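Dear colleague,

Following up on Tuesday's group meeting, I ran the structure prediction for the two-component complex that the binding team flagged. I've pasted the input sequences exactly as they went in, so you can double-check that nothing got truncated or mislabelled along the way. The structure tokens for the whole assembly follow below. Feel free to forward this to whoever is handling the docking comparison.

Inputs:
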Amino acid sequence: MKDFIIPDDRDMGTPARVGAPVTLEIDGIAVTVPAGTSVMRAAAEAGIQIPKLCATDSVEAFGSCRLCLVEIEGRRGTPASCTTPVAPGMVVNTGTSRLRKLRRGVMELYISDHPLDCLTCSANGDCELQDMAGAVGLRDVRYEAPENGGLANHFEARNTSGEANPAWMPKDDSNPYFSYDPSKCIVCSRCVRACEEVQGTFALTIEGRGFDSRVSAGGAGDDFLGSDCVSCGACVQACPTATLQEKSIIEMGTPDRSVVTTCAYCGVGCSFKAEMNGDQLVRMTPYKHGKANSGHSCVKGRFAYGYAHHKDRILSPMIRERISDPWREVSWEEALSFAASRLRGLQAEYGQKSIGVITSSRCTNEETYLVQKLARAVFGNNNTDTCARVCHSPTGYGLGQTFGTSAGTQDFASVDHADVVIVIGANPTDGHPVFASRLKKRLRAGAKLIVIDPRRIDLVKSPHVEASHHLPLRPGTNVAVVSAMAHVIVTEGLMNEDFIRTRCDWDEFQHYAEFISDPRHSPEATAMLTGVDPEELRAAARLYATGGNGAIYYGLGVTEHSQGSTTVMGIANLAMLTGNIGRPGVGVNPLRGQNNVQGACDMGSFPHELPGYRHVKGAEVRSIYESLWGVEIDPEPGLRIPNMLDAAVDGSFKGLYCQGEDILQSDPDTKHVAAGLAAMECVIVHDLFLNETANYAHVFLPGSTFLEKDGTFTNAERRINRVRRVIPPRNGYADWEITQMLANAMGANWSYAHPAQIMEEIALTTPSFAGVDYALLEEKGSVQWPCNAEHPEGTPLMHVDGFMRGQGRFIITEYVPTDEKTGPRFPLLLTTGRILSQYNVGAQTRRTDNVVWHEEDLLEIHPHDAEVRGVAEGDWVRLASRSGETTLRATLTDRVSPGVVYTTFHHPDTQANVITTDFSDWATNCPEYKVTAVQVSLSNGPSEWQEDYAEQAALARRILPAAE
Amino acid sequence: MSPEKMVHMANQIATFFKSQPGDDQADKVARHLLDFWEPRMRDQLRDYIAAGGKGLDTLVIKAARQIG
């Protein structure tokens, strides 16, 4: 496999521009660049690096350091090249003796207020100040402090007579991942601008004027941790000196090489450079040519990778006869033959369909493909499912029915062209932070925002971003709200009839128009049940329909409902009604939860479909695999995760191979999940840690992290990104190798030597992946499916000239109230979500310093609801539903409406899913996590369930010392 | 699965397809069950109907006749 060639990674000084070509001459070299480009960037394009300090290509030019001065023929003075745009015929000189002298003078002033401890400085070798001192030929600093003191500086704690220097500030080490050393700051403002322009948080500012200017996080008295800083790392990335520096670099030294790979957290799928020093990973930095993130990152991908080396990581296979026994470490061979003979034994005793698999949305496409192949080709059944069941399965069903394909329609860059953005049931600043930064940038540039969410999420109002409309609906009424918007659009004649006539099924539209025009769908008629102000809703619908390019982004607040699939169809209806499909800036965009949820779905993880969303009932599709694999494929759908658990309790499902998922913590109605797992006779958990599900496992196969293997992840924009091995698997094998060994122990004869070969098989059998191979990914960096003969370079935008299914289908979306209703016993509605610093069940992030931001799950409750229950801030409360009860601490906030409470599910001690019920989406069985009727009352401590659970978990996690 | 849960799930499907235009709702329910319900779930449904089918939407009962 040839090495990936890193494209030009130089800092071009200022951002790229789009515009008509302009030709100019720089140091005698003719260069052509788009209009609006700076002279600095044009010079960089010509291979000329003009010295600079305050400019970097991730933020707009600022013109403060005066180091990048140039001379332009016919113009007076020495303008800054970063802030001077190119002009046709311009003749620029960048290195005259006058300029050299001026630059040396500027550098001399900078260095006069900077410590000269370069050799021991953490940025040694990676410091732009050092580089520039060298570049301008600085040899002497004439500004010396007089012997009796009196020349102020910022870097000496005490002056020569031993008195404290009032201008010196100590290091701020409050953030766990980076330090701020004010003594090394040159006040270039790159960090402040990165926080504003790239991240959009506005946590940093320059305090004071002139010599007193200092970078400050938040107000007086705030440190970085206590400020609004979200630890995205953009400021650290932008800092030219050691002022903002990763602590890992301070501890381990600077990297000597890097490998481009893909983050394994959320569905944004950011590209990172894993920077290595020898065999040690010293830093992850966002990769600026990564198309999903364009050089930005969040606290998880940038910093929270330490779990790979956490002491809890299990590195040896383990087995046990019964789940009440302690674990016994064994060889791979013993573990796999134990697992294989148990699974085969179960099939012999209980039938071919008595075992199944759960593929992982955190593992690679290649690994997922092999796990479903294990079920289909080796187990001989379709009992395969994936955690998308519990998050975006309604997206698959709903968009499949309406548009003909189970995926988002746009790439992330599309948002740069949106005029009106609807965010519904998603919290991008926490769940998809790097996309949120892109979205906020567009909103600051003037796009309008509509938020449909029971909670006042941060996007509703945050610095320089404010939603035009927030519709705080009652949990469970999504369909009513989306339909009311469609009602307004249709009855007020705001639809795009031309689009509907040419692109959609006109007959079905007639049915739909008649249905949706009925006054019972009007905002006024539904306000009583949705709780949404009808005037606000009407205004929001008008804005979406008439405000230009309208884009809808949605998350699990849409899907995880009894009517999840219906809401997805309703969203598709809105986009078709307004013609917001098939061009940049519009579309229907599911924000995927886990890094490879899209890929796991694409790879045939669902029990009813083979890779590429093709139903198993199709004989033609089955024959592709039957001839390749030499087996017969079952034409009947297999069991979905909740069905597996039901069948286990009923006694007909006995064995499970679960890769990289923690269903006991993540799936609803924990008691039911536990009962299902306990009823199985062979549970194989393949994971990094002894997760909660492993408490019920008989075989534990240690997994590898994304740093330890090759493969691909597919993000929410259908982008297939390479994952590259950075360090060898600490457990000995990549996960695809382990699945292959298990398959072979069961009699298969697989012989994949590299994930590239698995991708070859995927491409061979799946039309939408036909053109994908590793060579193309090396060349392009990434590619969006469909990628085949028709779309050899992939498909950034879908449904451009027509829907994948031909004509778009309007589907009637009748609102059906969920049966999960509040009443006297359970008068409040619980809805769940996540926060920025933690990821999913927290298995990874809880094992990093991210816990400083979120050490426990809290219950958000409105002050009115708290007051009538005597609950004060920080009190322990009992949270009970018809399924179970748990305890956690309360926090009082009006982000939630009265009658609604909210919590996260990142911590197993809280077990928020003890509360959630077994109600699910009508079409897909996606659990209704987002609506549970609950009661909240004061509590003294853990519930009985929590105590029993903790006891069982402690017993189940015992490991016998390895045999001699 | 518990009969209550099965009845609830089947009725949810029927409720959706009842809202759709046309006169082939039972076919659509049957198709959905065939496409997404594993055979032992369909067996359970048929057995339950044979035992009286208490609580099931009539559309489910009609559809169940078409699922093998």
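Chain B touches chain A through 21 residues (CB under 8 Å).

Cheers,
M.
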